[in-house]
Write a structure and sequence with these properties.
With about 290 residues, the chain is α/β, with parallel strands linked by helices. The protein contains eleven helices and ten strands. Bound molecules: adenosine-5'-triphosphate (ATP) and magnesium ion (MG).
Length: about 290
């Protein structure tokens, strides 16, 4: 069994109008990994995710998911890969939310009891169970995004592919989504591929990143390394997470000891601040005032 969840080899993708959306793209994601796809508007992120889900076929090169070529049995690939589209309107098409979420499990040939259980669990997981009888086109933008996430969760995918999952979510829903994704990752070792511009969100759901720009992979590596590469970040029009920028400034312009790698999350930042205070001559009560990591 291949230990690669996603293997994109030398892929080119040309849209029918001649637009070359991806060229010479190589991406490998090991089973159970959490990987981010970053890049500016038009970089090719959504196109790449469509290829991973088998919805598009590469013009050149190959895409394998869990060892299966995506240009073979696409039904089998889509049973294993759950893609949350960037635009929920492309994904929700049934008269009611319940039918939309039940559609995937029904299509998998599961019995009625299992379909009901899965649809109910998925809708409860995103907090939309109370709206199950509503028409999807009457949902708010954030509710639509949650509905698409539920419709994918109901299929119990091995590879979860999310395109701009935090778009239109309020901060509480964003935090709940982070918890939900990480629970799935911890409990089921689900593989995560997340495309986003929300760089403050990424450290909480990914460990490694690929940066796409104009259809090419321009950087790849641990988040800390990618975010510290100011040339790549600038050229790709990406802003590092707020915390990373703050600690970079502290390193450069204050007596703060050089913190390397730069913290990406609140927990890492608190750890560094406590470490700094412990080394400084500040009174113990000041040090105690800094909360421990959560
Ligand atoms: N259906 C299409 N037909 C022709 N060209 C397309 C089509 N869809 C996307 N493109 C083009 O392909 C390129 C990559 O688009 P894609 O949607 O993959 O970018 P993206 O990185 O997801 O951007 P965003 O951050 O705006 O979501 C863009 O130049 C876009 O104009
Ligand atoms: Mg996109």
């Amino acid at each position: 069994m291949s230990d690669l969840a996603v293997d994109v080899k030398d892929v080119k993708y040309v849209y029918p109008d001649g637009c070359v959306a991806l060229d010479s793209v190589d991406i490998r994601v090991v089973r159970g990994e959490r990987v981010a796809i970053l890049g500016p508007n038009g970089a090719g992120k959504s196109t790449l995710l469509m290829l991973i889900d088998g919805l598009y076929r590469p013009s050149k090169g190959s895409v394998h998911v869990l060892g299966m070529p995506t240009n073979g049995n696409t039904h089998k690939v889509r049973m294993k890969v759950g893609l949350v589209f960037q635009d929920p309107n492309d994904q929700l098409f049934c008269p009611t939310l319940w039918e939309d979420v039940a559609f995937g499990p029904l299509n998998m040939g599961l019995d009625e009891e299992e379909v009901t259980r899965r649809a109910e669990d998925a809708l409860k997981a995103v907090g939309l169970y109370g709206l199950k009888d509503k028409a999807p086109h009457h949902l708010s933008a954030g509710e639509k995004k949650k509905a698409t996430i539920a419709s994918v969760l109901a299929m119990n995918p091995e590879v979860l592919v999310l395109d701009e999952p935090t778009a239109n979510l309020d901060s509480k829903s964003r935090i709940e989504l982070i918890g939900l994704i990480n629970n799935l990752h911890r409990r089921q070792r689900i593989t995560l591929v997340v495309a986003t511009h929300d760089l403050d969100f990424i450290p909480m759901v990914a460990d490694r990143a690929y940066v796409l720009n104009r259809g090419h992979v321009v950087a790849e590596g641990a988040l800390e390394d990618v975010f510290s590469d100011s040339k790549v970040m600038e050229e790709s029009g990406l802003e590092p997470p707020t915390l990373t920028k703050l600690f970079d400034l502290l390193n450069r312009f204050t007596g703060f000891d050089a913190v390397k790698p730069l913290p990406l999350t609140i927990d890492q930042a608190l750890h560094e601040i406590r470490h700094y205070l412990a080394k400084s001559r500040l009174e113990p009560q000041v040090r105690r005032a800094v909360p421990k990591e959560s």
